[in-house]
Amino acid sequence: MPSYTAPTKDIQFLLHDVLKVSEQSVPGYDEMDRDFTSAVVEEAGKIASDVLAPLNAVGDTEGCTFENGVVRTPKGFKDAFEQMKEGGWTALDCDPEYGGQGLPYLMMTAVNEPFVSANMAFNMYQGLTHGAYSAIHAHASDELKAKFLPKMVTCEWTGTMNLTEPHCGTDLGLMRTKAEPQADGSFKITGQKIFISAGDHDMSENVIHLVLAKIVGGPEGIKGVSLFIVPKIMVDDNGDLGERNAVSVGKIEEKMGIHGNATCVMNYDGAVGYLVGEEHKGMRAMFTMMNEARLGVGLQGYAQAEAAYQNALIYAKDRLQGRDVTGAKNPDGPADPLIVHPDIRRNLMEQKSFVEGARALTYWGANLIDKHSREHDEAAHGLVSLLTPVIKGFLTDKGFDMAVQAQQVYGGHGYIEEWGMSQFARDARIAMIYEGANGIQALDLVGRKLAQDGGKHVMAFFEMVKAECKAHEDERMKPFTDALKNASKQLQAAGMYFMQNGMKNPNNALSGSYDFMHMMGHVCLGLMWTRMAAAAYSELDAGNTDTDFLNAKIKTGEFYMARSLPACSMHLARIETGADTVMGLTADQF
Amino acid sequence: MPSYTAPTKDIQFLLHDVLKVSEQSVPGYDEMDRDFTSAVVEEAGKIASDVLAPLNAVGDTEGCTFENGVVRTPKGFKDAFEQMKEGGWTALDCDPEYGGQGLPYLMMTAVNEPFVSANMAFNMYQGLTHGAYSAIHAHASDELKAKFLPKMVTCEWTGTMNLTEPHCGTDLGLMRTKAEPQADGSFKITGQKIFISAGDHDMSENVIHLVLAKIVGGPEGIKGVSLFIVPKIMVDDNGDLGERNAVSVGKIEEKMGIHGNATCVMNYDGAVGYLVGEEHKGMRAMFTMMNEARLGVGLQGYAQAEAAYQNALIYAKDRLQGRDVTGAKNPDGPADPLIVHPDIRRNLMEQKSFVEGARALTYWGANLIDKHSREHDEAAHGLVSLLTPVIKGFLTDKGFDMAVQAQQVYGGHGYIEEWGMSQFARDARIAMIYEGANGIQALDLVGRKLAQDGGKHVMAFFEMVKAECKAHEDERMKPFTDALKNASKQLQAAGMYFMQNGMKNPNNALSGSYDFMHMMGHVCLGLMWTRMAAAAYSELDAGNTDTDFLNAKIKTGEFYMARSLPACSMHLARIETGADTVMGLTADQF
């Protein structure tokens, strides 16, 4: 069975040596000193290793069941969820007004990572609740907040997000679920929603569904969509539970992975719903929490890669097979460990350099979200909006690829379920799809974010990269700054191509959107590695004696710059071929 | 449920317009005229669509069972297998002396593709039998051949390949299974083998295991390995079945995919075995059939991508979601079909251009195998030996990637098992691992094949590419020849880098082996597309009126050249960074 250990040292390095949180002016960051973050992450890591990781395979094998209208989670999930609630882990960054601890989102992210690495399907129950909490917190009336949030903060009640219907996912304008206004100000919700993660289960007293629906008589299409709270069990004015609402589970889906999470078809048959925010402004309410939700999915991508990598590494050090061509490394044994072989190294280094770079990017994103929400820093908001599709799309694509590569280290043992490597790949696969399929992320990036606010955020990004290169002009940083400069230039050239050719035919830009997203992902990770290497050198210069760790950071970064950034020239070349070959066939010619 | 239709037109185009089989001097090819190959492939396609494809999901869902020592295949498999036997499909390219039809291997390949696309797990029972047949046919005594081959040709008895043991896969020198010589010339085989595909089942009277084992007292390591026939049920001199041999199934594995094929732990407890070929020359006996077996796995890679692509295409034409940014294409409907969107196109074109190129490469490989086996063409043998690791490694890596991309077209529907797209990806995943994991293919290519016979085969390959470019110097072929020339030059530069830097440190070559394999894969597919485009133009010039099909070939090829060949510059850049960053960490620093 796979094991998991929280990468506490890496997290601490990021928070304190790279992001230097205690030096930031963000309200709440002053509490995040080394001792505090270390204690919190260590404790989260313990729960991840001891409680959640052992349930990961159980969740996969057993899955959820649906019998007589009742959804049951796999054995052990309920107890583990109780531990999460009791430990206050669900309330970490929630508003103290509703019982939360008010910690920064960055701290929540650092805690979330071990939980997701250890058991992604399990963590989704809390993750979805947090998403619903955020939407209600941002948009609902004080009355609704007071009624629902305190129990959602503690996960006594969990939450869901209901967007997709059988005939529409991305194109929510086609939505058919309807909301009929009632005399008491509530609405009757009728329709079917599918792919509802954590849609129902046996770990909480109530489930609070957030449902997108169209108010009868409202505008056509996406402009007529509103957001509603629909509780599974009605809540009276004293906060006590009453009757069942007219919402039920139609079935649960058989899926490729995340078997421990119940993916439900939800049927709303005139269920009582409460409007969140304004009528017909449902999409806006959903979008305000999009950056946070998508960053969370990006985290899932690299967190699964991290868990898979840890196990691939153990196997590579343990499994004896073949000999080092430059001379036996384990001459007294029957063979050398796999890790002596250059192609196994290449594979492991790709995993390691991706995961550490991805973690840095995600934490930086969380930091920017804090700057916006706690300091009203609009530049930070613009930047994280630009980075969000990259974090979601690139990190989940690569996270899956890396989980697949980790599986490959095991040979045939990676394909059988016994070793657990298949599950990492199967679970990671969903992150490329939900919360906006990655093609949609690319479209969001190229079609919206690049030009947002007159292109000022992407220009700020390029300026930031330039400044970072300027700041480290010493010889030893050249492997970083040279590669980053080059990749950044190529990314700018791609943006220029879109501007010059997208005018006459938008397909010239859209045909290259996926490549651009990946290219920008590499530039972002290149930037992260430049920062991390500079931080590592600066620690070494200051006499930090953990030289093995710090030198490994620098060398891992050098690997990424040398071996991964060359992808940018490939993406640029593809982009510059435009739409001609992409759109060359008629639909019938396929 | 996914559907499948054999790409008969594409296969005919390859056989007759590109490979021009009837014009080749290979014995047996004269029978392969258009009518004959069309009739055979059509018929195979019918079985694939009507019999095998409907059982694909059944096999996945139900899987094989192991109870009271008996392995059972999923419902319907046995009847389908009977149909395969009765139709003579298992005997197509087998030696007429043992009841085969003596058709070329190329013809067998063209028939195999639809079978594998429709149901990979099912086809493995026959595929493994064919592999065992080939090894016995090439190396066993006439007596053993007469005893075992006729029933293996008809698949009344199926076959297996037993190499892997719990502690050794790639490094077979560590093998522990032992063979003790008996007075009657037979051997007693004792040991445990794992990951034995089609190791046991209920579809044939007998299973003929080919087992690698070490004769007691023989040389240490890989040089002491011999090959044995070990029948599940003993066969007497009249060919009648007798008692059970001392071989049994320990368990069957739970796997990520190919659930319809029983992957067995096989226990040999002093089982009677018969030596195949010479003592201690077991590896050589296995290697002679390696090109064929690995080509068959490469075929599995792209055949799964083909099946996944067909369904992604249907979905992309059918599913209405969003609007074409350049103007509605389905103005009377609620939305346009997915296929109008540039990023969906990009995705589909990547799948289509890969699969068609991969098919061409595989058929060319099969053609070269025929040239060697039927004409004793040693140059063809050298070339296919060089191409084999590329066909196996590149086509299975990309085949899996493309199946994953096909799944992505479906959004959330691709992740739930109901639509069958998950199965294509899960099944395709094994092809990257078995028959030599792809890292081993890369090692075989760079460590052995490049330098084989003084490098003459790789030089012949480059000459062939050059000649192909020379042969098509007209303007309209420039998108092909320019890109191919460029990619081929980059591949040569990579080879040069290995020569210059691999001497002082072999890790400089081995660290780039995986990149080289992919780079060579792209050059091979570029060569295939150049040939196919030239053939299409030549057909158009000759007045062939199927212009939609022929123009689509050309445009699909242009897509591949423009959008896929740029990967070569990335791989070259990676390769030229050598071993430094790959091998930079100590094992403890990971």
From TrEMBL, chains A, B:
Annotated GO MF terms: flavin adenine dinucleotide binding; oxidoreductase activity, acting on the CH-CH group of donors
- What EC class is this? oxidoreductase
SUPFAM superfamilies for this protein: Acyl-CoA dehydrogenase C-terminal domain-like, Acyl-CoA dehydrogenase NM domain-like
Tell me which residues make up the Acyl-CoA dehydrogenase/oxidase N-terminal domain. 43-155
Which residues are in the Acyl-CoA dehydrogenase/oxidase C-terminal domain? 281-445
Record field: catalytic activity: 3-(methylsulfanyl)propanoyl-CoA + oxidized [electron-transfer flavoprotein] + H(+) = 3-(methylsulfanyl)acryloyl-CoA + reduced [electron-transfer flavoprotein]
So which cofactors does this thing need?
A: FAD
Q: Does the keyword Hydrolase apply?
A: no
**Alphabetized UniProt keyword annotations:** FAD, Flavoprotein, Oxidoreductase
- Flavoprotein as a keyword of this entry, yes or no, is yes
EC nos: 1.3.99.41
Pinpoint the Acyl-CoA oxidase/dehydrogenase middle domain residues: 161-269
Which ranges carry the Acetyl-CoA dehydrogenase-like C-terminal domain? Answer: 461-585
Function per UniProt: Involved in the assimilation of dimethylsulphoniopropionate (DMSP), an important compound in the fixation of carbon in marine phytoplankton, by mediating the conversion of 3-(methylthio)propanoyl-CoA (MMPA-CoA) to 3-(methylthio)acryloyl-CoA (MTA-CoA).
Q: Which family does it belong to?
A: Belongs to the acyl-CoA dehydrogenase family.
Protein name per Swiss-Prot or TrEMBL = 3-methylmercaptopropionyl-CoA dehydrogenase
Its taxonomic placement starts with:
Bacteria, Pseudomonadati, Pseudomonadota, Alphaproteobacteria, Rhodobacterales
